[in-house]
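REQUEST ID: PR-0412
SUBMITTED BY: lab tech R.K.
PRIORITY: routine
TASK: structure prediction, single protein chain
INPUT:
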Amino acid sequence: MNIFQIKKQLRSRWKRWRRAIWTISACGLVAMMAWIGLLLSEQMEDLMTKEPIVQETLGMIMDAAAPSEPPKEWVETLMKTDQARIVHLNKIYTCGEESDVLGIMRPEEVASLLKEHPDWEGHLGAGGDVWLDERINGLSDICKRNGYIGIDNMGNLSLFEGPPKKEKVLKTFFQLDVETMESVLPDEVLKQLQEGIRIQDVEEYNSVLSTFSDYALEQTEKVMQQN
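STATUS: complete
OUTPUT:
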């Protein structure tokens, strides 16, 4: 066997070995990628199953960042003392108001109550009592039972408990331009206003105010808009 034949056999063997090496390397690479993919899949599944823990941790961080008491000057003044105070709650309805005493509370209890009801407003009264206001879209019990809108003896559009003739005024809205009303409105409408318009729901309440606001004197109309 001459040298050329030996070289030829060696080249042939090297090609077979190189092909085998590439095949083994490729298989190893595929196996490694599959293993990495499996690890990533397990990690993702683990993260998904632990999502509530992540949410709980985030919630704790947000709670810690939130102020511990309402950022109101009168509350800050309240918290500087250790005095228990009488707490009043005024429920201010679209039509009517109701008041109640919540009890005697310490400053931290008042702050906690305001934190539970962030939409409530309040202030310290001259006597040291705490007065809280809750605004409610609806009718108070008085308005539901016996609420009327009419005109009082001074020409003001007012809310009455019962017909206007009983003169139990709950709230005054604005002064009416009576002369203009008498010149443009039918007598039936004027008579109904004098006798009182029974309020059945919030929509009717707003409708009556809107209708007669067209006849409000300019000065009192501006005051009503500011309020």
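NOTES: The radius of gyration is 40 Å.
REVIEWED BY: pending
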